[in-house]
Amino acid sequence: MKKNNKNKIGYVYLPMILILYIVGNYILTSTGNAVCESSGCKIAEDTINIDSLYLNCMGALFGVILILVSWQKKLSNFILYAGILFESLMIGYQFFVSGSMCYYCLGVYGILLLTAVARFKFIVPITTIATVVVFYMMVKFVMLDGVITKTSNTVFLFGSPTCEHCIEVKEYLNRNNVAFEFKDVLDMNNQYIMKFFKISSIPVVVVKNIDNIDILLTKEKVKEYYKDKSKPSFNLDDMLKGSSVIPATGGCKVDLPCSE
Known about the structure:
With 260 residues, this protein is of the alpha+beta class. The chain is 59% helix and 10% strand. The chain has two domains: 137 residues; 110 residues, Glutaredoxin (3-Layer(aba) Sandwich), CATH 3.40.30. It has eleven helices and seven strands. Strands 2-1-4-5-6 form a five-stranded mixed beta sheet. Helix 1 runs antiparallel to helix 3. The radius of gyration is 23 Å and the shape is elongated. It starts with a helix and ends in a 7-residue tail after the last strand.
């Protein structure tokens, strides 16, 4: 009887908790009270090519499948290992690349690991986690969050030394005593950041505020920003939602020579 109860914890009860956790998060999100509201959660959503709703549905379905095949221990364990591998890659990306953690994802990950522990399965999960950690440590990634949010600087100019528009913006910022850090787009790290935010033109000025980040495209927008208190810019959250904004004038293509 005790053995059956232990089996139920790992094969039935914890998968049920996973389903309730995912469904509960969806309900809270629908009412504007998400489990996770950190920047890491927003970045995690935007690094996936499918909508978060479908991802949550897949997660809930994953839990249902674990319960349905619970009587076939080997198959159930194999599916669980696949889920742990997927979440390990997600958590690894957040920790080693984006620099911001999604607390909701950590909750899912924790439940999966507890499920493995309840089933007395340790070798495969530990090996999976170790492999993912070694992979991310060996491969060079750009710390997206760290490049901007984890520095003392508040203004960043992404541009090229040969771009006339960039030079003009640089001179404008200097004339107005705006302290900024220049980010050369020839640097692969900076190119990666711009591609991540779907920005394909320069100059781009990124202003780090207390509670958000403003992204200014073209020299005209930069000048308007420092002249007008309304700050006509693109917010980071808006940039992450989707479409790339390519200004018709006042900027240069990132991957092409600059010309008037």
